[in-house]
């Protein structure tokens, strides 16, 4: 297994342990950040654990909970980690389990490694551009990173229900998304619509459970980088709605354009 992939998986799983400890307590300490999005003690604890592991790679890190790094300082980075210590903090606070740890490695603005861990279910998604994308269930009390590769299932998986399926945000359903779903109904007839939180929407497409994920609402690079890696390495594409090209990373503007995830 790729050395950097092992580092990222270990970082995500160990962060998951910290998150679950706080999740199962009542000590959330929810604050509001400058943009009114919530920040919890678990976000910060996860960030610290992930940074302690990723620093061994000697690759710079752009994290939602890290300091803001000016574009002038990062524009020449050919490689960087992009991290969201908890993607779906609102879902964490609601205790619905639909939050993830996201870690991606970017090279020349493109996703080369993706790791997404779902602490409550123990499901781990991981991918590289060389081996493809995989899903595996992890026992956090007793795991071996090398063994996980042998236990994992390659994505996408076979789906029994072939009804055209759209996955959309649980917290950010926009009128434009509703219009897109309506267009898909005209094109495909019966359409299943599934709502999910966090990067699980990208994972559902990579896994083959959904045919597409239209995101016509704001996201940041750390919300999507790991999920894009897993989708691309499973054979799907993540298209920037404005450029109609593959979505790129480490841009001057970290706010993503709208995008569409679909089969390539």
- Supply the CATH class of the largest domain: Alpha Beta
What amount of the residues lies in strands?
25-35%
Number of domains: 2
- Secondary structure tally, helices: 8
Count of β-strands: 14
CATH topology of the largest domain: Fructose-1,6-Bisphosphatase, Chain A, domain 1
CATH superfamily of the largest domain: Fructose-1,6-Bisphosphatase, subunit A, domain 1
Order of helices and strands: HEEHEHEHEEEEHEEHEHEHEE
Pick out the low-confidence regions: none
SS-based class: alpha+beta
Mean pLDDT: 93
- Major sheet summary line: 7 strands, mixed
Query: Radius of gyration over alpha carbons?
Result: 17 Å
* General form: globular
CATH architecture descriptor name of the largest domain: 2-Layer Sandwich
Task: Label this structure with key terms.
alpha+beta, three-stranded antiparallel sheet, globular, Fructose-1,6-Bisphosphatase, Chain A, domain 1, 14 strands, 264 residues, D-Maltodextrin-Binding Protein, domain 2, seven-stranded mixed sheet
Describe the structure in your own words:
This protein is globular. 42% of the residues are buried. By secondary structure, the protein is α+β, with helices and mostly antiparallel strands. It is built from eight helices and 14 strands. A hairpin with a 4-residue loop joins strand 6 and strand 7. It folds into two domains: 3-154, Fructose-1,6-Bisphosphatase, Chain A, domain 1 (2-Layer Sandwich), CATH 3.30.540.10; 164-263, D-Maltodextrin-Binding Protein, domain 2, CATH 3.40.190.
